[in-house]
Amino acid sequence: MITERPRPPKSRSAVREPRWVRIMLTTVAVLFLGIFVLVPLFAVFGEALKNGLGVFFASFNDLAAFAAIKLTLLVAAISVPANLLFGVSAAWAIAKFEFPGKSLLVTLIDLPFAVSPVVAGLIYVLIFGAQGWLGPFLQAHNIKIIFAAPGIVLATIFVTFPFIARELIPLMQAQGSEEEQVALSLGANGWQTFWRVTVPNVKWGLVYGVILCNARAMGEFGAVSVVSGHIRGLTNTIPLQVEILYNEYNFVAAFAMASLLAALALLTLLIKSLVEWRASARSALQEPQVYA
Amino acid sequence: MKIEAKQLVRTFGDYLALDKVSLQIEEGELVALLGPSGSGKTTLLRVIAGLDFPDSGSVLFDDREATRLQIQKRGVGFVFQNYALFRHMTIYKNIAFGLEVVRRKDRLKPALIRERVFELLRLVQLTGFENRLPAQLSGGQRQRIALARALAIEPRILLLDEPFGALDAMVRKELRGWVKQLQRQLKITTLFVTHDQDEAIEIADRIVVMNAGHIEQIGTPIEVCAEPATPFVWEFLRGHALA
Questions:
Q1: Could you tell me which chain A residue has the CA closest to the CA of B85?
Q2: By the CB < 8 Å criterion, does B90 face chain A?
Q3: How far does A205 lie from chain B, in Å, by closest CA?
Q4: Which residues pair with B8 in a beta bridge?
Q5: CA nearest to A212, candidates A268, A264, A254, A148
Q6: pLDDT, tens digit, for every residue of B87-143?
Q7: Can you give the C-alpha Rg of chain A in angstroms?
Q8: Which of B209, B205, B204 is closest to B238 using CA atoms?
């Protein structure tokens, strides 16, 4: 059954832009998104599937491709938990304590956003590379960091560490620490307070941060490219593998690999919207809704 | 429980929040810490609660040293001005919290916890609200839940920070009468912070008037109104008398 909902009056409001302005702004936004986001996205899948599904799947039936996927997953599996630990600790410290050097820490967390990823990669080459500060020591002990998986993990952690911390800091700051203080006064220890009070309060922010962090960890190119050495089947992640295939004019395979990343991005966005939807449904329930 | 503070000093940088504050509160008393903002009354409450430690001086509970005792071990019920209810938990879970975090071997059986929670809900007259979230309650209701949650652990003292500060005038008047009645009934030593003279005069057994980090006068409402000890007390309580 359709019920008539009260509609706002159709008269032109004093604070509303004229119709043509609204249409123009919407058109610009939609066109821009279409040209810069949608068309490339379709192009990726289009190129990958150009010669049919058989060729598409055959692209993955390749040792180098398989190795790249495995390395990418490994890197994400290490760097996301590492940044989760770091992000939660940093956000906790920044939001709940006063300590000297706090503003410096806040600034440093933003550093990876400000620094070019290539520079981030070079930093690690300078430290751990053969000619770097620790190079002779590492060579003497036969430890490989640069041009090996450890270097890729380090570079990825560097590039992705702001994501979780940045998500949590404003949330924790807004919530203050009174709930934690109450929990302590009621006899809870630090561990119980953290798991029963702090974590549930920042749950959705945490999930959101992890999703973004993971997407970036899997997709990072610049920093990883510098430290990887591009050894096929050994130190290539998916983005690096895409570049190599492309440079070899192996377009279908390149786009097939790229479509994997694109699919991952779409999945990330889907999960992200789901999380936001859940979170907003939750906060709608928590809006001051006064009974009696 | 009897509370004693001896020569408490607390500074924040250059700011002297507590300047050699000494105070004794008897078993079962309802005492108001009254003063303008910045007078050190909340700092004193937090030091007694164990949410803050003094730079020097000591706190004694029943003549036993408690200055450095952790808040978990003090057995204090603390209620914040903004209630600080656990926003993601139902009212039931909020009240049960203090009973559920106890070590397993000392913990009450679930059925007993349940019984205790419902008993507290009856005490604060909010039976039937156990499945609501804090955000679905009015300010006065939240305040009563915060009180029930604090009482769940059977605290030896009750500390209330501006307990009626965030409520509108009508609810405030109603609630403070109710709190006094409850305190009488439970006979629990209670200390509350307020900047509202009428509130202190109306419900406190004794009033501690504070100013700039020290105590100006301690006395019954009649004493501080009739015989102000310092010009500050006279000025601060002028126009406020026992109704």
A1: A179
A2: no
A3: 14
A4: B21
A5: A268
A6: 999 999 999 999 999 988 889 899 999 999 999 999 988 999 999 999 999 988 999
A7: 24
A8: B209
Q: Which residues 265-284 in chain A show a CB within 8 A of chain B?
A: none
pLDDT in tens, A59-105: 888 888 888 888 999 999 999 999 999 999 999 888 888 788 888 98
Residues of A with Cβ-Cβ distance to B152 under 8 angstroms: 186
Distance from CA of A89 to the nearest CA of B (A): 21
From A279, which residue of chain B is nearest by alpha-carbon distance? B88
Asked if B80's CB is within 8 angstroms of A182's CB, the reply is: yes
Which ipTM score applies to this complex? 0.90
Residue indicated by tokens 């501080």: B224
User: Nearest CB to B133: which of A188, A200, A285?
Assistant: A285
In tens digits, chain B (243 residues) has pLDDT values of 899 999 999 999 889 999 999 999 999 999 999 999 889 999 999 999 999 999 999 999 998 999 988 898 898 999 998 899 999 999 999 999 999 999 888 898 999 999 999 999 999 889 999 999 999 999 889 999 999 999 999 999 999 999 888 788 888 888 888 889 989 998 999 999 999 999 999 999 999 999 999 999 999 999 998 889 999 999 998 877 655
What pLDDT digit, counting tens, does each position of A152-161 carry?
A: 999 999 999 8
| C-alpha dihedral, B144 to B150 to B153 to B154, nearest 10° | -80
Nearest-neighbour CA in chain B from A166: distance (Å): 22
Min CA distance, A30 vs chain B (Å)? 39
- Give the closest of B76, B89, B138 to A292, CB-based: B138
Cα A48 from Cα A260, distance rounded (Å): 10
| CB distance B230 to B243 below 8 Å | no
Beta bridge partners of B10: B18
Q: Name the pTM for this structure.
A: 0.79
